[in-house]
C-alpha cells in the first residue's frame, strides 16, 4: 500500500500574510513583503523599498516560493506569534513589525530576539536570486561609468571656495592646467591642487543605489614615521547629471 507521506508533504500549512517592518533612528526605512497564494502556488512580493541601480529602479520583485522558502515564512510567523507585543529598546534604533494575517494582526515594538528568523532573514532568503541580479546590474553600471570617466580630463568651473550645487564640467579637451585623472581600479589623481586641494586623494567610487548617481572622490591622508594617520585633504561628492566619453557634468554637493 502506498504511503501517505507525499500527500502530507504537499499540504500547505502556510497562511498568507503581509509584513510591514519599520527600522531607523533619524532616518526610517519602511519594508513591506506580501505572501499570497495563486492556484496551488505561493508567491512573495517585495513591495518596498524598491532597489535602485543608478537612476533606474527594479519594479516590485515577485518570486514563487519553494518548499524551503515556505518553511522560512512559517518559521517567521511562528516566532512572531511567540514574541511579546513590546520588547526593550536597547539602542536608539526603533523597530516595529505589523504583520497582517487573514484573521489576526500582530504588532511588535522594540528590539526582540528573533533568534535569526526575523525580517532580514525573511527578506534575504526569499529574494536571494533577485538581490544577486541587482548586484550584477550595479556592477555592470559601475563598469560602464568607469569606462566613460577613464583618463585625464580638464576640470572647468572649479573654484577654491566651491559652493553647493555649483556645476563642474569634465572635458576631454586638454587645454587647461587643471586636470583630474581617473585610472583603473578606481585610482584618482588631481593636477590642480592650487585651486581645489585633493593632492593626497588616491581613489574614487560610485554611489548608485539611491536613485541618483554620485561620484565620490575620497579624502587624502598623511602618515608620519610613527604610523599616525591624519587628514591631508578632504575629498568631494558630486551628483552626475550627464556623462559620456567626452563630456561630464557634475553638481558639487560638498567636501
Describe the structure.
It is built from four helices and 18 strands. The protein has 255 residues and is an alpha+beta fold. The protein folds into two domains: 5-142, Mago nashi protein, CATH 3.30.1560; 151-254, no CATH class. It is elongated and about 70 Å long.
Sequence stretches where pLDDT stays below 50 over 5 or more residues: 1-11
Number of domains: 2
Strand order of the largest sheet: 12-11-9-10-18-17-14-13
Q: Can you give the helix content as a percent range? A: 10-25%
User: How would the global form be characterised?
Assistant: elongated
> In CATH, what is the class of the largest domain?
Alpha Beta
Structural class: alpha+beta
Strand content: 35-45%
Any chance you could write out the topology, listing elements then pairs?
Elements: H1 5-9, E1 17-24, E2 28-38, E3 41-48, E4 52-53, E5 56-57, E6 61-64, H2 67-82, E7 94-101, E8 104-109, H3 119-126, H4 128-149, E9 151-156, E10 167-171, E11 179-182, E12 188-190, E13 204-207, E14 214-217, E15 220-223, E16 229-233, E17 236-243, E18 247-254
Helix pairs in contact: 2-3
Amino acid at each position: 500500500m502506498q504511503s501517505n507521506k507525499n500527500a502530507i508533504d504537499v499540504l500547505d500549512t502556510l497562511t498568507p500574510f503581509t509584513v510591514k517592518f519599520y527600522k531607523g533612528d533619524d532616518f526610517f526605512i519602511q519594508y513591506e513583503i506580501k505572501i499570497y497564494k495563486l492556484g496551488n502556488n505561493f508567491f512573495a512580493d517585495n513591495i518596498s523599498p524598491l532597489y535602485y541601480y543608478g537612476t533606474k529602479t527594479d519594479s516590485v520583485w515577485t518570486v514563487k516560493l519553494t518548499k524551503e522558502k515556505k518553511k522560512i515564512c512559517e518559521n517567521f510567523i511562528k516566532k512572531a506569534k511567540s514574541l511579546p507585543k513590546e520588547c526593550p529598546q536597547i539602542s536608539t534604533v526603533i523597530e516595529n513589525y505589523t504583520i497582517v494575517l487573514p484573521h489576526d494582526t500582530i504588532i511588535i515594538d522594540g528590539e526582540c530576539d528573533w533568534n535569526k528568523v526575523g525580517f532580514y532573514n525573511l527578506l534575504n532568503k526569499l529574494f536571494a536570486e533577485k538581490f544577486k541580479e541587482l548586484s550584477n546590474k550595479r556592477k555592470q553600471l559601475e563598469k560602464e561609468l568607469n569606462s566613460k570617466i577613464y583618463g585625464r580630463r580638464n576640470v572647468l568651473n572649479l573654484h577654491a571656495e566651491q559652493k553647493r550645487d555649483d556645476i563642474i564640467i569634465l572635458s576631454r579637451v586638454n587645454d587647461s592646467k587643471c586636470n583630474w585623472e581617473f585610472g583603473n581600479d578606481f585610482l584618482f589623481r588631481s593636477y590642480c591642487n592650487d585651486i581645489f586641494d585633493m593632492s593626497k586623494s588616491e581613489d574614487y567610487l560610485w554611489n548608485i543605489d539611491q536613485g541618483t548617481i554620485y561620484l565620490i572622490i575620497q579624502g587624502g591622508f598623511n602618515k608620519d614615521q610613527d604610523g599616525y594617520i591624519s587628514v591631508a585633504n578632504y575629498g568631494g561628492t558630486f551628483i552626475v547629471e550627464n556623462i559620456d566619453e567626452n563630456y561630464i557634468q557634475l553638481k558639487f554637493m560638498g567636501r
